[in-house]
Each structure stands twice: as C-alpha cells, then as structure tokens.
Specification:
By secondary structure, the protein is mainly beta. The protein is built from one helix and 33 strands. A hairpin with a 2-residue loop joins β7 and β8.
Length: 439
C-alpha cells in the first residue's frame, strides 16, 4: 500500500518523536500519592512554648570509674545500668544510687555499647565476639564468634538475640548458649534491628541498612517477609508502630511504610537530615535533625505541624519518659527536658565541666536521667527530676486612655482633659542680692 507524501511525512515525524522521548521507569503509584515538601516559614513557629509543668534537674550521683572514653550508649533497666569504655572495661551500677556492683575486663576493645537481655548483659568487642555475662554478678556465661566486628549493640527480639555486624550481615543467636542459628547477608552495614508486633500477634524484626535497604524478617530464622530499597541512604534506626514503619532518608525526608507490605504511604521533607531515632507520641512524630530543629509531623499523613529550634545540633537519641522528652544536644554540655506535645523547654541542666559535653544519649532510669561524658576518661552522672515552682505571673499594667478620650466615671487618669487644663505661667526668679555678681 502506497502512502501519500503528506501522510508519509506525518508518519516519519511520529516515529522520530517516539524515539527521542526519554525513557521513564515505571513508578508505583501508591508510593507517590502523598509527598509533601512544605516547611514552616513563620519564625514564631520555631520558638518553644511556655511549659505547663517546669522541672529541675538535681544531681543524684556521679561515677568516675572508667579509664577511657565510653563506647556507645548506656544500657539501663529498673535494676541495672551498664556502661563500657573503649579500652574494654564493662561496669554495672545501681541506676538509683550509682553504686558499682561489678566490673569485667573484656581483654579486647569494646566496639559498641552494652545491651540487656533478661538476666544477661551482652557486650560486643572489636575482635568479632559477643560475650554474655550474668546481670547479677558479672559471671561469664558464653561467647559467640561473630566473624566480624559488631556494628551496633545486640538486640533481643522474640527470644532471639540479633547482632548486626560490619560483614555486613545480621546473626540470630541462641540466648541460652550463644549458638549462631541463622545469618542474613546484607548489601550495606545494618542499623539496630527493631521489634515489630503485628496486629495478628506475630513478632517480627525490621532491619534497615545504611545504603537504603529495609526488610521485615522472622527473628529466629531470619526469613525475609518483604524487602524494599528506598533509593536513598537511611540515616537513623526505623521507628515501628502497630501498622507502620517510619524511616529517615538521606534526601532529608521521613517516609511512612506499611508494616505488612513495605509500601510507602507518604513522605515529608525536613530542613536537614534526621540524625537520631524517630519518636512517636499519640498521633505525632518527632524528628530530631542536624540543623538544631525538631520537626513535629502528623503520623497518619505526614503533614508538618511545627518545628522547635534548640541551641545546638541534635545527633544523639532522645529519652521519652511520660510527657517529657530528654535530649542532649551535640557539644552543648547540657541536657534539656522538653514538655510534650509542643516541646516547651521544661528544664535544663548544664554540665559544669570545662571543655566537656555529654557523649551518650540520655537514658531514663525510672525516675531520673543518666548520661555519660568525658573525652579522655568516661564518667557517668545521674540526675533526679523534680517539679520546679512556677514563676508568679505579673499583673498587667492598667491601660492608658486613648488620646482625646474622656475617662469614664471612676476610671483613674494621670491628667485632666485637654479642654480643662489651666494655663500655668512659671514664676520669675527673684533678683540677686545687691553686691553679688550676676552669672
């Protein structure tokens, strides 16, 4: 069949247009339906509100028994506080009094902080071992060969110990004897595994890796339920709720994924990278960022509620206790108590150590906060939380009447109406006495 010259030209033009169009990869529509990028522009939004219940920090105890800087965060329960220094000295204390209970020399450098699992204290060392000690007296229980240095502290989930290593992989370990029961190889170094309790009662684990992969796995066998690649790095451990996984990504965003499938439901931009573990209270998410700001998002839809600015960068995890959030801003040498939900500054404690700052995240001890500091030798500090007297409110000054307006009967005034003011001529000074010179 022969085509007319005009139709032939139109056909050639259509073919050329198709060939030069850019190739667009397929996109899951459900992942892109709710992406927000609005940030508050009103400077008043970044000012903390006035607290309803101000607090005081009172030093309860201090411990100076470490000879080197602390390695990782503290591990705390109602009855035990454990810390370790980089030289491999593991020490257990009473969290209320700061009294030493026992100490162990690991005979190797500590790579991460300790962890608590039932009646055990778990500690990873840089030579690729995980050691378990009795929480009561520090008695050695078992040692597991990890094959690589641990990346984070161990986590106990559903009767199994999960240990992330720099291999990179995650190991499932029997807590009774330290036997490695399963291994899961990953594409990049993993972040701390997080427990996930599904609505049907099943207990799983969410495992995220630094380069952007996230998985839901069965803890004992490490069988993968689903896997998702974000296409961005992951900058903080995920937050898992009853039906969502919240993830902080390297493109300065917070993502919401369905726990059952890993499908993304919304994404929201923040002003900087989220550098600490996300927190949730009721229907609000709290994202601590490296630009000194805490962003408050709606957990259901990601809508930005407000933000609060502190005076130093936020890089360490916060402690959530009751209706307060405790943060230790990086290099600030202070711990700040923030009142939920609006993050009003309820109280502040300054570390009176010249040139020092807190090197561990705040840890809630049941009725107070414990932190570690020290760039040359590790030290611990316990702080009690007390209610502070609320400042008395000053009575407002009486309003002055508007110009030209006659006050009502009985209303105080500081001058007469303009029409009633008498004309006053100042008296002349008396003449000087005779014989005295004039100025």
């Amino acid at each position: 069949m022969r085509l007319s010259r005009g139709r032939s030209r139109r056909l050639v033009a259509a073919v050329v247009t198709i060939l030069i169009l850019p190739v667009v990869p397929p996109v899951d529509a459900r992942d892109a339906k709710s992406v927000f990028s609005g940030l508050p522009i009103d400077p008043d939004m970044a000012k903390p509100a006035e607290p309803e219940h101000p607090i005081l920090f009172e030093p309860a105890w201090r411990f100076d028994g470490f000879s080197a800087p602390l390695a990782g965060d503290l591990a705390v329960s109602e009855t035990l506080l454990a810390g370790v220094d980089v030289a491999g000295r593991l020490i257990a204390l009473d969290p209320k009094e700061g009294r030493e209970r026992w100490r162990v020399d690991l005979e190797a450098a500590a790579a991460v902080g300790p962890a608590l699992s039932d009646e055990r204290v778990l500690q990873g060392t840089s030579d690729g071992r995980l050691q378990a000690f009795a929480a009561s007296d520090g008695r050695p229980l078992w040692t597991a060969d990890l094959g690589a240095a641990p990346a984070v502290a161990a986590v106990a989930i559903a009767g199994t110990i999960l240990q992330a290593t720099r291999a990179p992989e995650v190991l499932a370990i029997n807590p009774e004897d330290g036997t490695v029961t399963a291994r899961l190889a990953l594409e990049s170094i993993p972040l701390p595994p997080v427990e996930a309790r599904l609505k049907d009662g099943a207990v799983e684990a969410v495992i995220a890796a630094e380069e952007g992969q996230i998985r839901l796995v069965e803890p004992g066998s490490l069988t993968v339920r689903w896997r998702r690649a974000l296409g961005q790095s992951i900058t903080a451990p995920p937050l898992v709720t009853e039906d969502r996984v919240f993830v902080a990504a390297g493109d300065r965003s917070v993502r919401s994924l369905r726990l059952r499938s890993g499908r993304q439901t919304w994404a929201q931009r923040t002003g900087s990278r989220v550098t600490a573990r996300l927190l949730r209270r009721d229907d609000l998410l709290y994202a601590l960022c490296y630009d000194n700001d805490i962003y408050i998002l709606g957990a259901k839809n990601g809508h930005l509620k407000t933000r609060v600015t502190l005076d130093h960068r936020l890089a360490q995890d916060a402690a959530l206790a009751g209706e307060r959030l405790f943060v230790a801003p990086y290099t600030a040498g202070a711990v700040v108590g923030l009142e939920l939900p609006a993050l009003a500054i309820a109280g502040r404690f300054e570390l009176d150590e010249r040139g020092e700052w807190f090197t561990t995240s705040p840890a809630w001890t049941g009725d107070g906060v414990a932190l570690g500091w020290g760039r040359e030798a590790g030290r611990l500090l316990g702080l009690d939380i007390k209610d502070a007297p609320r400042p008395e409110k000053k009575a407002p000054a009486p309003a002055k009447p508007e110009a030209g307006k006659t006050p009502a009967a009985g209303e105080p005034t500081d001058k007469l109406p303009a029409s009633s003011e008498p004309e006053i001529t100042p008296p002349k000074p008396p003449p000087p006495p005779p014989g005295e010179p004039l100025d």
